Amino acid sequence: MSTFVSDFKERAAEKTGDLRLRQFIRTALRGYEVSRDKRKGAFQSWESARQAAAETKWEAINHLDTHLESLVAKLEARGTKVHWASNAQQAREIILKIVTDKKARSIIKSKAMTSEEIHLNHALEEKGFTVIESDLGEFIVQLRHEAPYHIVFPSMHLTRDEIRDLFQKELGDAPSNSPEDLTMVARRVMRQKYIQADIGFTGGNFAIAETGMISITENEGNARLTAALPKTMITLMGIEKVLPRFSDLALFLPMLATAGAGQPMTCYNTMYSGPRQAGEADGPEEWHVVLLDNRRTELLADAEQRDSLSCIRCGACLNVCPIFRNVGGHTYGTTYSGPVGSVITPHLRGLQDWKHLSNASSLCGACTEACPVKIDLHHHLLQNRRNASASQPSFFERLAYKLFGIVANEPRFWWLAKKIGWLTQPLQHAIKSSALDPAKAWTKTRDLPPQPRESFKDWWRNRK
Amino acid sequence: MTVTLFIPCFVDALFPRAGISMVEVLERLGHKVICPEEIACCGQPPFNSGYWDEARTIAAPIVEKLHDAEVVVIGSGSCGAMIKKFYLELFAGTRHEAMAKQLSERTWEFSEFLVRKLGVTDLGAKFPHKITYHDGCHGLRELNIKLSPRALLGKVAGLELVEMKEDVCCGFGGTFAAKFPMISTAMGEVKIGNAVETGAEYIVSGDSSCLMHIQGLLSRQGKPLKTIHLAEVLNQR
Question: Which of A47, A362, A406, A451 to mutate to test the interface with B (most CBs of B within 10 A)?
Answer without folding.
Answer: A362
